[in-house]
Design a protein that fits this description.
There is one protein chain. Strand 6 and strand 7 form a beta hairpin. The chain has three domains: 285 residues, 3-Layer(aba) Sandwich (Alkaline Phosphatase, subunit A), CATH 3.40.720; 103 residues, no CATH class; 71 residues, Arylsulfatase, C-terminal domain (2-Layer Sandwich), CATH 3.30.1120.10. Strands 7-6-5-4-8-1-9-10-2-11 form a ten-stranded mixed sheet, with helices on both faces. It has a four-stranded antiparallel sheet with strand order 13-14-15-16, with helices on one face. Strands 3-12 form a two-stranded parallel sheet. It has 513 residues and is of the alpha/beta class. The protein is 33% helix and 15% strand. The chain contains 14 helices and 16 strands. The structure holds calcium ion.
Length: 513
């Protein structure tokens, strides 16, 4: 009798185990998602896009293993708004974050919330920058506001915490620590969001001498005279005239003049520097001695001084990126070493592009290509063939629907982007125009909106100034010649204006209708 019961029990356990195996095999396994985003990372400073400035082998690896988007753009080229667009899949006028000053309403629908509801373990580590607390995350450990590069404060699940070290390395370590202790019965969604390479480009101490011997030529349009382009004439964002000698160029100058627009920069420089330990501070000062000597030699010769400023800017910017690339390598290695690389989708992007001296500028904001465009690459093992390059017009608006689609979750109809799956085989129909709207008024940049098609870009500065611009990107990829008054383009302008109005209606941007 006892033997019979035991036999029955064994058969019952065997049968249930069999059922479990069958159900695990028949339900599609949902991939993990690692969403890596840096802040202000220009595509010009990723070797998968351009080998001229820096080698980024680890970031490039994501593109080699998946798809590289050559024409990825943002809908509003500034930090917090871009993050809100990616979280919600909606334009700024609908998600409520038009500029950096607005607070993100965390009650709205977002990708982490939807992925969490679909059984994902969710986390964000690093830059958040949306003023309200993150919602929809099983774990969050974020920088307050912009955050600091050295020995930074974090807010860990609502609690103030300080970590010793360099911010990019800390974000990497915290991300990997979370991956180790996550609930392994669920797929994960991790947003590893770097502060670097945001202004004021403070590199890891170990990287302070990188590029010391590299010469960086000025971009061909560094001395752009802005003729015929009123929007550019009013801005205060040039490498030549609007950067701070201390904060941006790292010359500890007590009695140097401050550019009016940077009234806050000298104090901020000393505050940031004071976060270094005594030893780190000594290494910092030793490392920048050479740059200070070169400043004293160059400052009385205008051309030489311009070249020195550009070099100071680019060196520190790229030094910060060297750490981001190392971080990507570390986390990709972790995935591989733990057998997670085959079932983890990896996205690399930035919250927008950045000017590295083109048009004489640093910063972002404008709809001109370098700030409007953003790096984007996706590795999706088994779903995307290796080494594809896409020329489709894609947007950061597409990130949210794409990630939901990858997770097999329903995409809410209120989301305005498109799942990028359509672009993976290159044959599907895709949008032929994209819409942009920038709202902030700082640094002399007027709010503007516009349309970009395969060949043309039409934009309208409508607030501080009232001025239209048209570019033929095929003939003038650097956007030096505004064709708005050119009689040959009258019909093209008329068509673009009508297409622009259609997009404003489609995306419900009623503020400009
Ligand atoms: Ca940014």
């Amino acid at each position: 009798m006892e033997v019979k019961i035991r036999l029955n029990l064994s058969l019952f356990i065997l049968f249930n185990t069999f059922l479990l195996i069958i159900s695990a095999c028949s339900s599609p396994e949902r991939p993990n998602i690692l969403f890596i985003m840096s802040d202000d990372h220009a595509f010009q400073a990723i070797s998968a896009y351009s080998p001229d400035l820096i080698q980024t082998p680890n970031i490039d690896q994501i593109a080699k293993d998946g798809i590289l988007y050559n024409r990825a753009f943002v809908t509003n080229s500034i930090c917090a708004p871009s993050r809100a667009v990616m979280l919600t899949g909606k334009y700024s006028h609908l998600n409520g974050v038009r500029g950096n000053g607005e607070v993100f309403n965390g009650n709205q629908q977002t990708i982490p919330k939807l992925l969490q509801q679909n059984g994902y373990e969710t986390a964000i580590v690093g830059k958040w920058h949306l003023k309200s607390d993150p919602i929809g995350f099983d774990y969050w450990n974020v920088l307050p506001g912009q955050g600091d590069y050295y020995n930074p404060d974090f807010i860990k699940q609502g609690k103030d915490t300080v970590y010793q070290g360099y911010v990019t390395e800390i974000i990497t370590k915290l991300s990997i620590d979370w991956l180790k202790k996550r609930d392994k019965n669920k797929p994960f969604f991790l947003m590893m969001h770097h502060k670097a390479p945001h202004r004021s480009w403070m590199p890891a101490i170990k990287n302070l001498q990188l590029f010391d011997d590299t010469k960086f030529p000025l971009p061909s349009n560094f001395y752009d005279d802005y003729e015929g382009r009123e929007g550019l004439q009013k801005q205060m964002l040039t490498v030549k005239d609007h950067m701070d000698i201390r904060m941006d160029f790292k010359v500890p100058c007590i009695d140097c003049d401050t550019v009016e627009v940077n009234w806050w920069a000298p104090e901020e420089y000393w505050r940031r520097l004071n976060r270094l330990s005594q030893d780190e501070r000594a290494q910092w000062e030793e490392s920048y001695k050479k740059e200070v000597t070169e400043f004293l030699e160059a400052k009385n010769n205008e051309k030489r001084y311009d070249q020195w400023k550009f070099r100071r800017y680019i060196e520190d910017y790229l030094r910060c990126i060297a750490s981001v690339d190392e971080s990507v390598g570390d986390v990709l290695d972790f995935l591989k070493d733990n057998g997670l690389d085959k079932n983890t989708v990896v996205v690399y992007t930035s919250d927008q592009g950045f000017y590295l001296g083109e048009h004489g500028l640093f910063d972002k904001r404008f709809m001109y290509e370098e700030a409007f465009r953003t790096p984007l690459m996706i590795k999706n093992p088994d779903k995307i063939r290796k080494g594809i390059v896409s020329e489709q017009l894609v947007l950061n608006l597409d990130i949210a629907p794409t990630l939901l689609d990858i997770a097999g979750a329903e995409i809410p109809t209120s989301m305005q982007g498109l799942p990028l799956r359509e672009t993976w085989n290159g044959s599907a129909e895709w949008r032929d125009a994209i819409y942009y709207h920038f709202y902030e008024k700082g640094w002399g940049v007027s709010p503007h909106y516009g349309i970009r098609t395969d060949r043309y870009k039409l934009l309208h500065f409508y607030d501080l100034i009232d001025s239209w611009e048209l570019y033929d990107l095929q003939e003038d990829p650097n956007e030096m010649s505004n064709l708005i008054q050119h009689p040959e383009y009258t019909q093209i302008i008329k068509d673009l204006k009508s297409q622009l109005k259609e997009l404003q209606e489609k995306y419900k941007d009623k503020e400009v209708l």
